Every structure is written in structure tokens, then in C-alpha cells.
Automatic annotation (TrEMBL):
It is an enzyme of class 3 (hydrolase). Transmembrane segments: none annotated. It comes from Salix brachista. It comes from the Eukaryota. This is protein-serine/threonine phosphatase. InterPro entries: PP2C, PP2C_BS, PPM-type-like_dom_sf, PPM-type_phosphatase-like_dom. PROSITE patterns: PPM_1, PPM_2. SMART domains: PP2Cc.
Length: 376
């Protein structure tokens, strides 16, 4: 526990967080409560039972993903399959980035999620400084806004930065909060005609020295550092105290109708689009900027189809096993033969479906550390 708290302290000490609530981590004696707000949805657990719960959770994960047995053979249990023309699993490896993504329709009739990966979408000094873009968009009321975000938001970011004429200075001097606010506002204005359709957005701009995450809605970004899961965004849920206060101050109401919803309709308090719910639903993102260190392992960006049924800690544990080659999904499909980031994304989507997720599920896994060829 002391090591976990030490890692979290280290991460928070280098985090430049802009107008976003900090996570509260409190450790007392073994008979006291350990409270974690954010990672497990604000669940309180007795410290004495924590290890037992952890081991039970780990056993369930191993049983599902078919961890290797002692003799090196794979478990033969059956698994859900991603083999569908409406599902997508992608693996990309290059000199600077290894990432994988998976999108599944799940139990929904329509696919409203989209994902976007754009390597080197920003570059300066003849490509010496490069930045990669990763985005997950969870549409509602239709896929039009999510599709528009997929095609446009990363381009809008480039346009905003270039308009600021940063030139050879790269993006080190960017006021990321202002840039992202302007970009999300522009994106919101572009889709305003789709009055009854909207989308959440969680995006990560990854450079060699820093990582920028902007979030609008209840999709989420989580980073694993030295084995510890650290949320880089906080879900915009209508019953989040500061969001509830903001909605009510604007003249709106949050109604508990099959879950807390703005005006009893929308289960997220921020999104791009949804013109009919403004000003109660805002398109303003919350932005987190952190400096990269050698201890950072990977980032997971995903829609709430994953996070509704899997905790940050479980997702990081599964991903870590996949990246180390200790876990492979039992159903075969695109990306399964190479393991790594795409394998992790695929396993996470299957695990979410097995746990009863009723939503579309989209996951991007971005490795931040180089792996040796023998580790996959």
C-alpha cells in the first residue's frame, strides 16, 4: 500500500492539472476505511478485505482470459468472439509508437462509437518533435456527431495550434486548456445542426516529453505507472457534485430516471452536440497535462461501455498481462497472432461483454514503453 501511495504522490507531483478535481487517496490503519474516489466509482472498502477482493478479482480475470497453465498450454474454455463485420481490431507498430484498438457493437442495435488514431499529426523541426493523437468518441442519438469528431477534431487541434504561430518552439508553450476549449467549442459549433445527436470525447495528445488529455463526457483515460492505475480524466456524470451544481445554476435539473440524467434524458453532463440540452450540457472539456517519465507504461482510452463494468485497476492489470505476453484472448481474430496492445484492447472488450456491458465498447491501448521482441 505504501508503494502504491508513493507512486500516486509522484504522479500527482508532476501533474499540471487544470481546473479538474484531484483524486482523494486516504490511508489509515488496517481497521479503517480506504477511500478511493474516481477509480472504482467512489466505492468504499474495508482495508482488511482489500487483499481478498483483489485476489478474487484477479482469479476471475485469469479464468476469463485463459491465462497460461503451468505446462504452458492455453486454457480451453470458451470465449466471446470479436469476429463480426461490425467489430474492429487494429494493431499498429512503428519506431515511436505501439498501439491497438478494438470497437465492438456489443448488445446495441447500432454502432455509435468511433475511434481515431493519427500518428505524427503534429510535427515540428522537420519531424524532430512529433505528437500522436488518440481519440474515443461515444455517440448517442446516432453516430453522426461521433463520426464528425473522428474526421475533424484532430484537424481542428492542428489548425488552432498553427494559428498561434508556434513555429520552431514546438508545442511546449501551448496553453493546452485554452487550445482544447477552443477546439471543442469549434467542433460543437460544426455539428450544431444535429440538434438531437451528440457524442462524448476523450482524446490524448502524446509526445516524447508530455501527454495531454482532454475529456468531455463519460469516456475515460487511465494511465498505468509502475503498475498503478491513475485516472487522467474524471467522468462528467450529472450527479457529480460540481456538475450537478453547474447544471442547476444554469436553470436545469438532474432527474434520477433509470440513472441520473440531465432533464431526465442524457446520462452525461458534457458532450459535443446535443443542442437541445444547452446550456445545461456543456461542450467544455477538462484538461490534464503530465510530463512523461520512464515509469509510465501505457494509457487506456475507452468509452463507458468498458468503464461501466471494469474498474481502472482491473483494466490496467489485464493490459499489463497482455503486453507481457502472459495473457492472450481465446477467440482468434485480427491482431490475436501478434499480441501486445491490440490483444489487450480485444481482451478488454471481450471481458466487458462477458461482464454484461450493454453498450458499444471502444478501447485504445497506447504503449509508452518499448517492449523487447521476446516479451510478446
Amino acid at each position: 500500500m505504501n508503494e502504491v501511495l508513493s507512486v500516486i504522490k509522484t504522479l500527482n507531483s508532476r501533474r499540471r492539472r487544470l481546473k479538474i478535481r484531484r483524486m482523494r487517496y486516504t490511508c489509515q490503519n488496517s481497521r479503517s476505511h480506504v477511500t478511493s474516489s474516481g477509480g472504482d466509482g467512489g466505492i468504499e472498502r474495508k482495508d482488511g478485505n482489500l487483499w481478498g477482493e483483489y485476489k478474487k478479482e484477479e482469479k476471475k480475470i485469469e479464468e476469463f482470459v485463459g491465462a497460461k497453465t503451468k505446462d504452458g498450454n492455453e486454457s480451453k474454455e470458451e470465449s466471446l468472439s470479436l469476429a463480426s463485420p461490425r467489430n474492429d481490431v487494429v494493431l499498429v507498430d512503428d519506431a515511436d509508437s505501439s498501439h491497438g484498438s478494438a470497437s465492438v457493437i456489443g448488445m446495441r442495435k447500432e454502432m455509435e462509437d468511433t475511434v481515431k488514431v493519427e500518428l505524427g499529426f503534429l510535427s515540428f523541426n522537420g519531424g524532430e518533435k512529433k505528437y500522436d493523437f488518440y481519440g474515443v468518441y461515444d455517440g448517442h442519438g446516432g453516430a453522426l456527431v461521433a463520426e464528425a469528431c473522428k474526421e475533424r477534431l484532430h484537424r481542428v487541434i492542428v489548425e488552432e495550434i498553427m494559428e498561434r504561430k508556434l513555429g520552431k518552439k514546438g508545442v511546449s508553450g501551448v496553453e493546452w486548456e485554452k487550445v482544447m476549449e477552443d477546439c471543442f467549442r469549434r467542433m460543437d459549433e460544426e455539428v450544431v445542426k444535429n440538434t438531437m445527436i451528440g457524442s462524448t470525447a476523450v482524446v490524448a495528445v502524446v509526445g516524447k516529453e508530455e501527454i495531454v488529455v482532454a475529456n468531455c463526457g463519460d469516456s475515460r483515460a487511465v494511465m498505468c505507472t509502475r503498475g498503478v492505475a491513475a485516472p487522467l480524466s474524471v467522468d462528467h456524470k450529472p450527479d457529480r457534485p460540481d456538475e450537478l451544481e453547474r447544471v442547476e445554476a444554469a436553470g436545469g435539473r438532474v432527474i434520477n430516471w433509470n440513472g441520473h440524467r440531465v432533464l431526465g434524458v442524457l446520462a452525461t453532463s458534457r458532450s459535443i452536440g446535443d443542442e437541445y440540452l444547452k446550456p445545461f450540457v456543456s461542450s467544455k472539456p477538462e484538461v490534464t497535462v503530465i510530463d512523461r517519465t520512464e515509469n509510465d507504461e501505457f494509457i487506456i482510452l475507452a468509452s463507458d461501455g468498458l468503464w461501466d463494468v471494469i474498474t481502472n485497476e482491473s483494466a490496467c492489470r489485464v493490459t499489463k498481462r497482455c503486453l507481457s505476453g502472459r495473457t492472450r484472448r481465446r477467440s482468434q481474430g485480427v491482431g490475436s497472432e501478434r499480441g501486445g496492445a491490440a490483444e489487450a484492447a480485444a481482451v478488454l472488450t471481450e471481458l466487458a461483454m462477458a461482464r454484461g456491458s450493454k453498450d458499444n465498447i471502444s478501447v485504445i491501448v497506447v504503449e509508452l514503453k518499448k517492449r523487447s521482441s521476446s516479451s510478446c
